[in-house]
């Protein structure tokens, strides 16, 4: 059946996503294309497993191991792992795929065929992320995708009343409560009887951020 937001059928959208993945190999700036794939998966959840399977296929014995196309596929797989969890059967298969990249090849194997050092780092990062991902309200922002491509953390700036702005390193899984607790500790307010929370402020609204809200989702809304 046709999907929401002017999407066509799931089959047609799956084919479009496959074409996007093919285009990803040649993109000099893959970030907007990656965000578009992630947004489609958020709007059409049945396609999450489809994209995971396509990415596993594309990162299995690629024609140019370690090349730009191979790297872009691993980077998109990294972004997927921080945004969506696949269904249990696909998750088990994905873990098997990742373990093949993390484990060293047996002695005497052709090491030049699969230069696993960089890909193994992505595989380890993805495996760890899958253990923390619980679902997102928004797809990663352009900034978040850029730092995920480098397997790094984002820097979030929090403005505190009566104190200078504080910079906090966050991941795709960091909650508002975790950031608030860190700031309370930094500002020496651990013994204060007051309660502290983060607020999201824009031109249109100002509202408290729920304790379990992911800060990455808040930053995407700002974007």
From TrEMBL:
* Start and end residues of each Ras-associating domain: 152-223
Q: Which residue windows are coiled coil? A: none
Q: Provide the Gene Ontology terms for cellular component.
A: cytoskeleton
> Which ranges carry the FERM domain?
154-223
Q: An example of a Gene Ontology BP annotation on this entry? A: signal transduction
MyTH4 domain: from which residue to which, for each copy? 1-149
InterPro entries, A to Z: Actin_motor_Myosin (IPR051724), FERM_domain (IPR000299), MyTH4_dom (IPR000857), MyTH4_dom_sf (IPR038185), RA_dom (IPR000159)
Name of the protein described by the UniProt record: PKHH3 protein
Taxonomy of the source species:
Eukaryota, Metazoa, Chordata, Craniata, Vertebrata
């Amino acid at each position: 059946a046709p999907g929401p937001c002017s999407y066509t059928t799931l089959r047609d959208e799956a084919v479009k996503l496959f074409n996007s993945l093919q285009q990803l190999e040649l993109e000099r700036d893959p970030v907007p294309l990656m965000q578009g794939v992630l947004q489609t998966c958020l709007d059409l959840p049945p396609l999450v497993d489809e994209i995971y399977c396509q990415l596993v296929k594309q990162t299995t014995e690629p024609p140019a191991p370690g090349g730009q196309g191979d790297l872009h596929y691993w980077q998109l797989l990294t972004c997927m792992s921080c945004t969506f969890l696949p269904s249990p059967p696909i998750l088990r298969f994905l873990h098997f795929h990742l373990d093949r990249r993390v484990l060293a090849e047996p002695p005497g194997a052709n090491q030049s065929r699969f230069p696993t050092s960089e890909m193994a780092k992505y595989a380890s990062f993805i495996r760890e992320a899958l253990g923390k991902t619980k679902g997102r309200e928004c797809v990663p922002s352009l900034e978040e995708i850029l730092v995920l491509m480098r397997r790094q953390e984002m820097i979030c700036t929090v403005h505190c009343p009566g104190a200078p702005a504080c910079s906090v390193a966050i991941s795709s899984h960091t909650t508002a409560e975790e950031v608030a607790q860190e700031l309370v500790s930094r500002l020496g307010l651990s013994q204060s009887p007051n309660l502290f929370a983060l607020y999201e402020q824009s031109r249109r609204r100002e509202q408290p951020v729920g304790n379990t809200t992911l800060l990455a989702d808040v930053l995407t809304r700002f974007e």
